[in-house]
Amino acid sequence: MQFRVESFETVTSTNDLIKRAIEEGQPEGLAVRGLRQTAGYGRQGRAWESPIGGMYQSFLLRPEVPPTQLPTLSLLVGLAVRRAIANLVPELDGRVQVKWPNDIVVAEAPASLDEAASAAGEGFACGEGPSPLCDAAPGGDSRPRHPFHKLCGISTEMHARALCVGVGVNVARPADASSAPAGKNIPVYLDELGFCEGPVEDRIRAVADALCNQLAIVYPLWCEQGFELFQAEFDACSALSGRFVRMEDLSGNVLAAGTVTRVASDGRLVLRTPEGMEVFASSGEAHIR
Question: What is the pLDDT of residue 31?
């Protein structure tokens, strides 16, 4: 499979253009990119303005698979993103993780700034200061604030019997950080992790190309063989594996709670309760205790 790429300087959102292409009856395989989005949006309709610095790319897919397989597509795309980042920045391979159901995160930095500098390639943000993954404590000590920070978000929408898959990767911190997407997740950017050589537009294009290449590999296999082929890979790089989480709906109601053991072949997150029972979560946001 090879994607047909259309690139734009500014768009309302790359998802908008894919939906229009779906309505026009275009075949699957279209990838739309924009350096800027004036009305970008992600999961649950959260909207923002997307300045230059992120990789904004959406895909038109028409998978001929059983409906029960569709919920695993966002997990598959997450794996494709993780593979792409690990190929571009090999030293991050062990720290870039998939977070069910549709995020890519970077694990916390090492305990000291010296160790973190070594892990990020002898320096932070191209020499622009300490990593955002840590708080600098008095005396030069640095302690992680969170177990991981968000690098990428994925949205998957059914539209006119086709799928619009949007992917946003934080490549470079925007010059105007106040215009970047805000929310409860603390972002991290690839340029703060060692991927900072060359013009930002070239780095964005490299990430977009790498994602297209990886998705072109895994998507046909997923269509033919389902998600079972990728379960072990997902569990091996899952940010939630072994963690006790509460699954909550948008109102904060607890849907399930337990220690994450694996992801099921149908895409549900499998938790083990303190009583030893297995429960399956198909929706909600995972909050780590």
Answer: 98
The pTM (predicted TM-score) of the whole model is 0.86
Which residues have C-beta within 8 Å of that of residue 251, sequence separation ≥ 6? Answer: none
Q: What is the pLDDT of residues 50-72, one digit of tens each?
A: 889 999 999 999 999 999 999 99
